[in-house]
Specification:
Blueprint (H helix, E strand, L loop, with lengths): L5 E7 L3 H12 L4 E7 L2 H10 L4 E4 L11 H8 L4 E6 L3 H10 L4 E4 L4 H12 L7 H14 L12 H11 L4 H8 L3 H15 L4 H10 L5
Parallel strand pairs: 1-2, 1-3, 3-4, 4-5
């Protein structure tokens, strides 16, 4: 993201020291950012209804919304806002579930300042973030599922490969439909078929499977 653009970041955490610390960390990033802070999930929804945000840093255990369904509510409000889960909950237990549910990154509150900066900057660049340990868990999961005799990508049609390529670039379904001159429902069907053939449930898993099979797209 170009440095001259002003970006908007929303921090949702019920601990004042966490909100203060994140604001200090963001202030040291090479970007011009306005940081808004809230203490409860209801305030997240109200605030997002009034203003657009490039990034939401969201605690899991937040008054009024301590469940994975928070992601659905956030994405319904602002589909293009990047969401970084910032939590004290055990990453080994929660990270993959939240990433599969639509979060763009998961960061433990035990992370160093440098890792926190990296995670925030990664999402501001419209890329996904996960720690090395979470990445290993996903790759191990893929390794267990992999059939050494069959490359699942070989089952995709040419059109499905086209749609998959656009999905990996973060392009929304309606835009893909415009680019390929298709109905949105048709693109949605292609996406469903791709996910079924590859045995995945999220874009995060798609990207990891592409890396795992060393697919060029």
């Amino acid at each position: 993201m170009p440095e001259y653009l002003m970006i908007n970041i929303l921090v949702a955490d019920d601990h004042s020291i966490v909100r203060y610390g994140l604001k200090k960390i963001i202030a040291n990033l090479p970007v011009s950012a306005t940081v808004t802070t809230v203490e409860a999930f209801d305030d997240v929804i109200v605030t997002m209804a009034k203003q657009s945000f490039d990034l939401l840093i969201l605690d899991i255990n937040l008054p009024g919304g301590n469940s994975i369904q928070m992601l659905d509510a956030v994405k319904l409000q602002q589909p293009h806002t990047m969401v970084l889960i910032f939590s004290a909950y055990d990453e080994k237990i929660y990270a993959i579930d939240y990433l599969q549910a639509g979060a763009d990154g998961y960061l433990s509150k035990n992370s160093t300042e440098e890792e926190t900066k990296l995670a925030i900057q990664t999402l501001l660049n419209r890329e996904k973030y996960m720690s090395p340990s979470t990445r290993r868990m996903i790759l191990n999961k893929l390794d267990q599922q992999k059939d050494s005799q069959t490359n699942p990508f070989e089952t995709l049609s040419i059109r499905e490969v086209e749609v998959m390529s656009l999905l990996t670039k973060g392009i929304p379904l309606f835009k893909i439909a415009e680019m390929l001159h298709l109905q949105i429902s048709t693109v949605s069907t292609y996406k469903t078929r791709i996910f079924a053939k590859l045995e995945i449930s999220s874009i995060i898993e798609l990207l990891e499977k592409i890396r795992f099979y060393n697919i060029s797209i």
